[in-house]
Amino acid sequence: MGKTxxxxxxxxxxxxxxxxxxxxxxxxRASELISYCNKHIDYATKDSPNELYRIFYYDxxxxxxxxxxxxxxxxxxxxxxxxxxxxxxxxxxxxxxxxVALRFxxxxxxxxxxxxxxxxxxxxxxxxxxxxQITESDIYLEIAQKGVDMRIGLxxxxxxxxxxVDQIVLIAGDxxxxxxxxxARREGIDFILDPMWQPIKPxxxxxxxxxxxxxxxxxxx
Length: 221
Fold this sequence. Notes:
By secondary structure, the protein is an alpha/beta fold. The chain has 6 helices and 11 strands.
């Protein structure tokens, strides 16, 4: 019986899951993620028996600093935010799940600040709007992460080198995973990418063995 390891870029999954499945409580989102991963196992066993080795979940603890909101002209204590509580409760829920390993990177506090949304910035440069017309909904808190991609790459390499699994499923977007994927494939590992219906660069397809998202495509009726 073959074994499958599922690696999840947590920040990517939570953003896509919210778009695909709607907002949920921390426990509901954690249970949803486990169910989602198990669909990959069910898909892999159509032709031959397979079992889950482990789910590796990669993310960063929520930011605790106080940041300045340029629109409201007020300081925001992120430790008192709803997202802070939700994230910690979600991580606790994930930690209690069977066969789940949590891997945490770091937040670059000095690089975290409010920025304009890309579409608003374009309108501003095209002079379709003025600075005075920018509202709070036109900005978002950009949080820079450190170490998540590196941990994903190291685990892919370790799983492949030690021959701990026969298949790796990576749930992620256009991350810099190509070198690790190439190494895994050279070791004979079946490498599957799940971008959760987010478009990927055509060049990435040559470095994976398959592309599979186990949920309905929202762009198709």
